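Go through the following before class.
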Amino acid sequence: MGHGNGLRSNPIKVLLLENIHKVAVNALKQSGFEVDFLPSALSEEELTQKIGAYHVLGIRSKTRVTNNVLSNAKKLMCVACFCIGTDQVDLTAAQKYGITVFNSPFSNTRSVAELILAEVIALSRRLTDRSKEMHQGIWNKCAKDCHEIRGKTLGIVGYGHIGSQLSVMAESMGMTVIYHDIRTVLSHGNSRACDTLDDLLKEADFVTLHVPKTDQTYNMITETQISKMKKGSYLLNASRGSVVNLGDLVKALKSGHLAGAAIDVYPTEPESNTNSWESELQKCPNTILTPHIGGSTEEAQYAIAAEVSEKVIKHVTTGSTMTAVNFPIVDMPKSSEKDIHRILNIHENKPGVLKTINSILCDFNISGQMLATQGQIGYIIIDVEEKASGDLMKNIADLPFSIKTRILY
């Protein structure tokens, strides 16, 4: 069981890690929240020690929010992921503890797509090798193994927001676009769906990966799949580091079966910037290595910060869980009546729970309520007259299946 007070009596404390854009800091402060801002990630041990004091945690991709962290987050209402992915958060544990998780699935779409298109051109012209040679004082003007991308085939694995936008951009450059996705999705422009991954690998000159981290995508590309790619083709990965077996990729690059690769994500990544990073891909020919910067543009970070901070503010001030990735979706407008308090309750999703809650509500003057369930939990918002809110909150919070209950306002 969990009890809590509202916004008026307890200032909301926010911990932002990993140098989140200042537009989020400003928006949260303007909403009356107390914000602590750190430029880097925290280790699991450090975060576990600090998290108990905060109501909101904001992270990017490096911070790991584990069950151990969440079990110590007694005040935490939500985790805000200022990025696309949420695999750095234990979503099941967060739901169990009644902690909502938000992300920004669209805001850096253009930045990632532009990086991939730039890398396609750079690989095709072997630009990074030529640049490296020039920095070493070597003038090596040659056209061998350098090509235009016009007329070449781009194979997109994962035709979501990034893949589909990349598709349109690549077509505008004169490329033929094919794609493969486990879902049935709408083709953009003249792009064409491939029935299987193998069909795409056999046909594409460039293969670019835009898939989430799942059991299905773990080691999706190994020696088996690479051997089916065209000799002299290219592989690009800006999705997740677990998708490609790097040892097999190194073999293909050094043997010449692949003409090049561009990798932005890795199986293990540093928690902060470092000058001692190592990878087996280093010194492979025509291989572009970048430090997980697909969405690292000023434009993307601004858009992400604005979007996610808005979700956090709405969640904390109204109880809305709209677009949450691990929670029942409830979004009830604020009552126009005077002297109304809002109560939020998160509870175990078991048979008979709703009947029990409604048996309590029937003794009060309720002006509005909304409930939804997802997985193991249910979430209800209740608007009740001010004079009865304290008794109602206590009655619901004392139920054996209640996880968290608080008066919002």
